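#onboarding

Welcome to the new folks! Below is a worked example of what a typical request in this channel looks like: someone posts a single protein sequence, and someone else replies with the predicted structure as tokens. Don't worry about understanding the tokens yet, we'll cover that in week two.

Example request:
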Amino acid sequence: MKLSNALDKDNETEAVSRAEENASGMSRRSFFKRATIVGATSAVAIGGLVSLASALDKEMSPAGSKREVSGGGLTKGDRDILVAAEIAEALAVTTYSNIINTSPFFTRLPTDDQGYLAGALQEEMSHYLLEQSATDQLTPFTSFYYPFNMFADAQTTLNTLVSLEDAFIAAYLVGVRNFSTTPLRVTSARIMGIESDHRTLARVLGPDVAAQDGGPILTITGFQGVAESVAPPNNNGYERTLCLNRIEEAVKALLPFVDITAAGAAGFDTSKSFPFEPFHPTLPNPLGDFISFSGC
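Example response:
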């Protein structure tokens, strides 16, 4: 995988309207667009991702090969997608763990909402470990940046969380499209379904935010920069692809979270990064365990 240094002219020049500004003073569309613009200057960070995804491919299949994961082989494209997914899952684990452990509003959520967040944390960690086992390599990024007041302001937290889940869903759909084998495509679809659950349940939280934490929150702004009503929380008839066709496009969405230059350009708080702290997860129900790449 090689990230292009050529930037989409439309993405560089399209203005972000005031209507897209959220309570934290920055729209989700704004920070993702600004991150794309500085992508060419973030070559060191992204180079680490790309080189790890390709140079360390010890068991890479020959060009055009469609060997099964069970046979021990991954194509270069498979490995690129899996390493990008590892980074996304490490970011997700870091996000959920800090919401649970540091966000004041978490303790004032109803217990079932707290349970959703706790369950999501276990699931994201399971996803990371599965992908890491397939690549036999660790995430190249182990700390992450966030918008100002990410874990202090509930609106910022939910806007960012839904934006991330939007991006994760679209990224796993890239895997469904581009993985070389049926087991990998099925696994990508299975994980994507869980990320979709997480997006819906994150939107469920909005009305349950306590008044002292700025609630009830009735609109949440996701990846596309549009403030959407939380009613109904499951407001998709079909999953949104975000028009992503290649994993390089999905990786750009992660730039502000992993690279200090992109983070600063996106208006994130660069004074502090949050470490990825892996652990051994316990999934909520054995019926929903991984089982195998074939799914049964």
